[in-house]
Every structure is written in structure tokens, then in C-alpha cells.
Design a protein that fits this description.
This protein has 2 helices and 10 strands; from the N terminus they run ααββββββββββ. The protein is α+β, with helices and mostly antiparallel strands. Strands 1, 2, 3, 4, 5, 6, 7, 8, 9 and 10 form a 10-stranded mixed beta sheet that branches. Keywords: Coiled coil.
Length: about 260
Amino acid sequence: MCIVTELVSIGCQARSNYLAEDSKRLLLTDPDVILDRLTRLENQVVQLQNDNRKLTQENQQQTLTIKAMETSLADVHKQQSTPKYGSTYTIWGRTSCPVNNDTEEVYSGYAAGGLFSEKGSSPDILCATQNPVFGKTSGSVYGHLYGAEFDDNFFASHGNGEDIPCAVCQRHSTISSLMIPGTTTCYPGWHKDYHGYLGTAQAGQGISGSEYICIDINPEFLVAGEVNTNAGRLIGAVFAKCGILKCPPYHDNYPVTCVVCSK
């Protein structure tokens, strides 16, 4: 009896498994089931595509951010490596500064100073701006500012009476600029800005004295400045005088050269 019961139980279980498998086969071939699975797969694909698009956009944004940071770091490095100093000098007899990547023109102007015959005039020779700005229109007169002109043809043929231009220049990679009289070359480690001949106000003029300036070897003239008025600061060449000035190396009555150097 027990054996029969067990056989019946086994048979029932087998029938139940057969019906389950048959049910699965029915579900797998059911169009509604297939459509539902396809729909879910399509939704998953769409979601994956959206996720991929989002990740791509985030990656592009991160790439742009990295590039911006690299550019910013490069600018910082450039600023750190670029000196925060510079030096300035005046080039006399030229309307503009030498053209190179390290030199910037601050302004161009007119050589100016006191009247050659006016006693007590300042010895300074200035590079007056072409764009003056005035405040007051009157006051007590203690000095005058006149234009400067060449007093002979030494610096250039037909230069007598020509008005003298000037320009103020800045060297970005240097810390010092100086004018060296008596030579046309700079010492080791210094860079030449320009060279020429030493100039000053003519000896015997009424002014108490005059500073020395370095006139460029190829001077230019101001437009419409060729009229010889003798009504301003008159500039001529400087000559060496032996005695206390050691000769040689200097030579008596030789015009003195000059050079402007930066470092």
C-alpha cells in the first residue's frame, strides 16, 4: 500500500512539472509576453543611450574645464616667469622707439628746454608730450619751456635749425638703462638700445648749463620744423678736451660718441 501511494505521489509531481514546463513554453510563445519584453528592452536601450549621452556631455564639459585650467596655469606660469620690472630711456632725435618685441613706446614728443639766451634757465632737456593737458591758464612766470633745435649740420646734413623729436621707451625684460658717453658699444651683459653722438646746449649761451643727451646716429626731424628761429634750446655736438680728461684713450677735439644700453 505504501509503495502504491509513493508511486502516485511521484506521478503527481511529474505531472505538475510537465504542466509548469508546458506553461513556460506557452508564455514564451505568447505575443503579449514577447511584446512586453521587447518594450522593456527598448526602454533599457533608450535609458542607456540617455546615460551615455549624459556621460559624453559631462566628459566634454570636463575636457573644457581641464583646458581652461591648463590655460589659466599657463598664464600664471607666464606671469611668474615674466619679470614684473622694466626700465625706461629717452631716444633723442627719433620720432619713435626701436622696433623689437621687448620695447614699448610710452610716448613720443618734442625735445624742449629753456631759451638759449635766457639766464637762469634750467639745464634740463625734456621730452615734452605731444598731448599736453593744461590746468591753470595764468600765473607768475619763473621759467619758460621752448622747443629744441639743432644749431648746425653736425648731426645730419641740412640739420641746422631742424626741431628735434624724442620718444620715451620701456624695455620690459630689463631693470636698468643708462647712457654711456665715449663709445658706441655696450659692455658684456648689456643690450644696445641705440647709439649716436653726445649733444648739449652750445657753450657761451646765456643758460647756466645744460645736460648731455645722446642724439641718435640717424636723427629725424619734426614736420614743419625746418625754420631756423634761434628761439629755443639750441643743441650742438660735444667735443673731447685733453688735459684732465686722459688722452689717449680720448683725442682732443674729437666729437664724443654715446650709446644707450639696458640690462
